Amino acid sequence: MIIKFIQCSVFPDRKEAFHRGQLAWHTLHEAPGFVCQFGGWGVVNAFTAKIFAIWQTRQAYENFMKHIHDEIFLVSGQKGTYKNIDVKIFELEINLTEISSVLNSNNKPVFFAVNGNSLYLKTEPCINSEAFTIEKSWSIFGDNFSRLI
């Protein structure tokens, strides 16, 4: 699967606007090949948004970027809410059942790391992991998510 990992350094006085804008991405659930998106705020830096988007194939992701992304971004109003953005794309093996259970953990920090060809996402730290708190309202599940787990 394709994992897009996004980190945004959000202006402190624009954090609420960024959060509201993140809610506009809910239309992703209709995009062909979209699996899920989730994220939240960094534990070390509460003004760093960490967002994961998971796609079934690179072609589905590229189609989204070419035809859908810019329109959602425009509607979100997130332009100008962050000072920088870092985007990384991985092709990794992931366990959607584990991701689903982590997303349902209540108010615990979530730890993530990319180890080799796998994404580590748990409620316990591992070597080189980073922590963030889940913003439940940012979680979006594709129409086919339940069939994939």
The count of DSSP E runs of length 2 or more, i.e. the number of strands, is 8
Distance between the termini: 13 Å
- Give the fraction of residues assigned to helices: 25-40%
Strand content: 35-45%
Q: What is the number of domains?
A: 1
Taking the sheet with the most strands, its summary is:
8 strands, antiparallel
SSE sequence, one letter per element:
EHEEHHEHEEEEH
Second CATH tier, the architecture = 2-Layer Sandwich
Broad CATH class: Alpha Beta
CATH-defined topology: Alpha-Beta Plaits
Principal-axes geometry comes out as: globular
Query: Overall pLDDT, averaged?
Result: 90
Structural class: alpha+beta
Low-pLDDT regions: none
Rg: 14 Å
Count helical runs.
Answer: 5
What topology does this entry show?
Elements: E1 2-10, H1 15-22, E2 34-42, E3 48-55, H2 58-67, H3 69-76, E4 82-91, H4 96-103, E5 109-115, E6 118-122, E7 130-134, E8 140-141, H5 145-148
Antiparallel strand pairs: 1-3, 1-4, 2-3, 2-7, 2-8, 5-6, 5-7
Protein name: DUF4937 domain-containing protein
InterPro entries: Dimeric_a/b-barrel, DUF4937
Domain DUF4937: 2-90
